[in-house]
């Protein structure tokens, strides 16, 4: 009888344990599913897939940047359209200048210490105000501390659209 009681007691205890474990498993499964779904929704990437290396095209004030190509609508950029006008396109790290109706473009990354947005243009020369280097409208060094020219980019004018290819 003791054996039976004992067995009954064990059976009863086993049933209770089973129910408790089943309940915990169900709860953990629910959390696990929610966690997995949450990770899947927020990351939205296949593991090991690198982020998109090409930023999307940007467009502002008649200037559209798409990869290594820049398109400038001169009708929207009256300053650049006038002889002696110039433009710094920060998101493309590019300087563009109008020299008597001819357009020249070059990197805005200074060859001295890589400042890319502290530029002025007066008396037909660009000055990087980080440390005072000066460059002509083709990017050649006029005054240091920079010793290397700014890299030039090709330009093409079609109607009122100026294209720059980096
Ligand atoms: S970074 Fe342009 S002069 Fe130093």
Automatic annotation (TrEMBL):
Cofactor: [2Fe-2S] cluster
Listed Pfam families: Rieske (PF00355)
Compositionally biased spans, kind Pro residues: 48-58
UniProt keyword Metal-binding, yes or no: yes
Domain of life: Bacteria
Cytoplasm among keywords: no
GO molecular function annotations of the record: 2 iron, 2 sulfur cluster binding; metal ion binding
Domain Rieske, residue spans: 95-164
Alphabetic keyword roster: 2Fe-2S, Disulfide bond, Iron, Iron-sulfur, Metal-binding
InterPro entries for this protein: Rieske_2Fe-2S, Rieske_2Fe-2S_sf, Rieske_Fe-S_prot, Rieske_Fe-S_prot_C
GO cellular component terms given for this protein: membrane
Region described as Disordered: spans on this chain: 41-62
Full protein name: Rieske (2Fe-2S) protein
